[in-house]
TrEMBL record:
PROSITE patterns attached to this UniProt entry: GLYCOSYL_HYDROL_F3
Domain of life, source organism: Bacteria
Signal sequence segment: 1-21
Family statement: Belongs to the glycosyl hydrolase 3 family.
Enzyme Commission number, as recorded: 3.2.1.21
Pfam family, one: Fn3-like
Record keywords: Glycosidase, Hydrolase, Signal
Domain Fibronectin type III-like: 703-772
Source species of the chain: Sphingobacterium zeae
Name of the protein in question: Beta-glucosidase
Enzyme class: hydrolase
InterPro entries: Cellulose_Degrad_GH3, Fn3-like, GH, Glyco_hydro_3_AS, Glyco_hydro_3_C, Glyco_hydro_3_C_sf, Glyco_hydro_3_N, Glyco_hydro_3_N_sf
């Protein structure tokens, strides 16, 4: 009997491992997160810890063979040799990744792929640690089949944070449905030079507006608590001052002191961090000679000590390697890894900046065990809080109920509608009548699906994207004849047909001319290792904006100006619609074209939304989040420059062509009854500003009321004016609405000469109006003490 028992025990030991992973305390979902983190961390080898900080390119980790989706050998190798902890852009498809509608993944296939990847990591690795899958999601999940919203510059033009929160919630639901738990976005870069290629990805030039939009995105992405169903964590980009590089060169150095950083560039990040953002991405650039990916002042002192950030910091792609590359502040890869992790950078996007380099740095004594453990714990903590250990898989049957639904399309159309900015409308040419006999639709962006989507967009199925030509056809009656002539390309001048466009215009009752720019990538363009596009003079695509396409001029490219001048010369009523990723030169149009509508990149429903505006089904109320310059010679031309006021140039005014906050409506609004009250207490104050806005037009419409502040006398130089509050509200024709804003010491503080925050006593002008240069009401308040 004893021999038999021993034999059975031996057989059992062969059939079952000594201790199953699910029996470990870190697998026990009833334990507090910190105990689970501590337990798991104590069981990991140095190699496994280093691997948890590596985020590899995810689209290489699956294989598609017909309808069969399996993991790739590259995943097996990475899991075995690198012990990886995260993947980036697993579901991304675009010319850079070489993923198309044929070899990429549909939404259901995407869920199948991420489930297969997670199943392998949980079942086939020593500790069964699931991966955190990060996805690009700034204006929709960058995956085949997902809903495409307007790019960030258009989102900001809505001046409607609640709508952007709803949009972000939709993006989160679509991303979560297919296995993503981390969305890259929002981009909180403060854009002051539109020559920079990524202006379209920003919320514009004002820190307060950016902060409101960024906070809305984080709330929409993350919900009330980490780990909720249909919610993901956001990654704030790019920390910091990335959007104001010298000369507009993407990723290059910036020239700002600490006061400018604290007063203007850091506040949007602070707002989003304090709203709970789970992750922050470092920027490629250096500040005052210190690369952002190796800057302990930024990542430790400001981000964690001052703001209390508890998430993890991730590099931009290959930015750690940039320390011993382009920046040349590290002699070796090990040195670069040591600099970054000691500065507080936790995760390497690429797997090559840390990985073997970090392991060597630990073995050589360049990185202490405690420093490594701190970074790993931050990643593990996030995985536990997101519920990845308890539920690493998604329900493939629910994908169709969450991705690209009719409701999601409706939100995309509403964001596009509210983002449209009416720049000019002489003699009320707009809205156009739906009963016109003949309309000519002309221009390179009138019927080009990809030109209205912006950068960071996946391939799209035929018919999914509603172009403006399609929108116009759906808006007018069957009796109206629509003539479409492309006329020219965005850049290529070899196949222009200006004569054909003029002929169509001459036959029309009205002309809708659709010009602008493009961030549409193609398979002829070459790309850098970071994913940025290379500018190649031998490859002439439409692309003139988007990552890597910095410009020296803001003029419309190709034959577009020639086309516009030829169409205007016909004498027909012309409406110019601009679809673009950055402010372009509109001087000639502003002088000669009677109506101008700016739509930025309006997303998949953009054509319908623009048509809604053109034919009066929607009353436009978008406002510019960035100034439109008259010339690159004015740059920077942001409204909130520091004192003194600008004086004019010899050639032209110093003011922008169209200022920050500007936008017209089919209605008219009158402001009145400004009331200001101040209640000071020992440690703070409340300044209440109220006023009335009446709709004096014939149509109901939204009005975006804006409150600006001027600090009349301050211990350090302050801006000529600063946006502090705004609200978009619909007002019925003939009705009046009362707006109420409240300011506290946080709104009027400055970073003083002693390097501390202070709200100083004295007089403050309070300016209320419809834009930064359309002030309707003026008042003041006087603080009697410092705060």
């Amino acid at each position: 009997m004893k021999v038999r028992i021993l034999l059975l025990a031996a057989m059992g030991a062969l059939l079952c491992p000594p201790l199953q992973a699910q029996q470990f305390p870190y697998k026990n979902r009833s334990l507090p997160t910190e105990k689970r983190v501590s337990d798991l961390l104590g069981r990991m080898t140095v190699e496994e810890k280093v691997g948890q900080l590596s985020k590899l390119l995810g689209w290489e980790m699956y294989t598609k063979d017909g309808k069969q989706i399996t993991i790739s050998n590259k995943l097996r190798k990475a899991a075995k040799e690198q012990h990886i902890g995260l993947l980036w852009a697993t579901l991304r498809a675009d010319p850079w990744t070489q993923k198309t509608l044929l070899n990429g993944l549909s939404p259901v296939e995407a869920a199948r792929a991420t489930n297969a990847i997670q199943r392998y990591m949980v079942d086939s690795t020593r500790l069964g640690i699931p991966l955190l899958l990060s996805e690009e999601a700034p204006h929709g999940h960058m995956a085949i089949g997902a809903t495409v919203f307007p790019t960030a510059i258009g989102q900001a033009s809505t001046w409607n944070p609640q709508l952007i929160q709803d949009m972000a919630s939709t993006i989160a639901k679509e991303t979560y449905a297919v296995g993503g738990k981390n969305g890259y976005g929002p981009v909180l870069d403060l854009a002051r030079d539109p020559r920079w290629s990524r202006t379209e990805e920003t919320y514009g030039e004002d820190p307060y507006l950016i902060g409101q939009m960024g906070t809305a995105m984080i709330r929409g992405f993350q919900g009330e608590k980490l780990g909720q169903r249909d919610k993901i964590i956001g990654t704030l980009k790019h920390f910091v001052a990335y959007a104001a590089p010298d000369g507009g060169h993407n990723g290059e150095s910036v020239s700002f002191g600490e006061r400018s950083l604290r007063q203007y560039f850091l506040p949007p990040f602070e707002r989003a961090v304090k709203s709970g953002a789970g992750s922050v991405m470092t920027a490629y650039n250096s500040i005052d000679g210190i690369p952002c990916s190796a800057n302990p002042w930024l990542l430790k002192d400001v981000l964690r000590k001052d703001w209390g950030f508890t998430g993890f910091v991730v590099s931009d792609l290959l930015s750690i390697s940039g320390l011993n590359g382009g920046h040349a502040t590290a002699a070796t890869g090990e040195d670069a890894a040591s600099q970054s992790i000691h500065a507080g950078l936790d995760v390497d996007l690429s797997g090559t900046g840390y990985g073997a380099n970090l392991l060597k740095a630990v073995q050589q004594g360049l990185v202490e065990s405690a420093v490594l453990d701190t970074a790993v714990a931050r990643v593990l903590r996030m995985k536990f809080n997101l519920g990845l250990f308890d539920q690493p898989y998604v329900d493939e049957k629910l994908v169709a109920q969450k991705v690209a639904t009719p409701q999601n399309k409706m939100i995309a159309r509403q964001v596009a509608r509210e983002s449209i900015v009416l720049l000019k409308n002489d003699q009320q040419l707009l809205p156009l009548s739906k009963s016109l006999n003949r309309i000519a639709v002309i221009g390179p962006n009138a019927d080009n699906a990809y030109n209205q989507l912006g950068d960071y967009t996946a391939p799209q199925a035929d018919g999914k994207i509603q172009t403006l030509l399609m929108g116009i056809r759906s808006a007018v009656g069957k009796s109206t004849k629509i003539d479409y002539v492309k006329g020219c390309a965005i850049r290529d001048t070899s196949n222009s047909d200006i004569a054909g466009a003029v002929a169509a215009a001459k036959e029309a009752d009205a002309v809708i001319l659709v010009l602008g720019g493009s961030s549409a990538r193609d398979f002829k363009t070459s790309y850098q290792a970071t994913g940025a596009a290379n500018v190649d003079p031998n490859t002439v695509s439409d692309m003139e904006s988007g990552e890597g396409f910095d410009r020296v001029s803001l003029d419309m490219m190709g034959d577009q100006i020639k086309l516009m001048q030829a169409i205007q010369a016909t004498g027909k009523p012309v409406v110019l619609v601009t679809i673009m990723g950055r402010p372009l030169n509109l001087n000639w149009a502003a002088e000669h074209v009677p109506a101008i509508v700016n739509a930025w990149y309006p997303g998949q429903e953009g054509g319908l939304a623009i048509a809604d505006v053109l034919f009066g089904d929607y009353n436009p109320a978008g406002r510019l989040p960035i100034s439109v310059p008259r010339s690159v010679g004015q740059l920077p031309v942001h409204y909130n420059h520091t004192k003194p006021k600008h004086h004019d140039y010899v050639e032209m005014s110093a003011s922008p062509l169209y200022p920050f906050g500007y936008g017209l409506s089919y209605s008219s609004f009158e402001y009145s009854n400004l009331q200001i009250s101040l209640n000071e207490s020992a440690h703070d104050f409340t300044c209440t500003v109220s006023f009335d806005v009446a709709n004096t037009g014939k149509l109901a419409g939204d009005e975006v009321a804006q409150l600006y502040v001027v600090d009349e006398v301050s211990s350090v130089v302050t801006p000529v004016m600063q946006l502090k509050r705004f609200e978009r509200r619909n007002i019925t024709a003939g009705k009046k609405e009362n707006y109420v804003f409240q300011l506290t010491k946080e709104d009027l503080k400055l970073w003083n000469a002693g390097n501390e925050w202070k709200t100083e006593k004295g007089r403050f002008k309070l300016l209320v109006g419809a834009s930064s240069n359309d002030i309707r009401l003026k008042g003041e308040t006087v603080l009697t003490k410092d705060y």
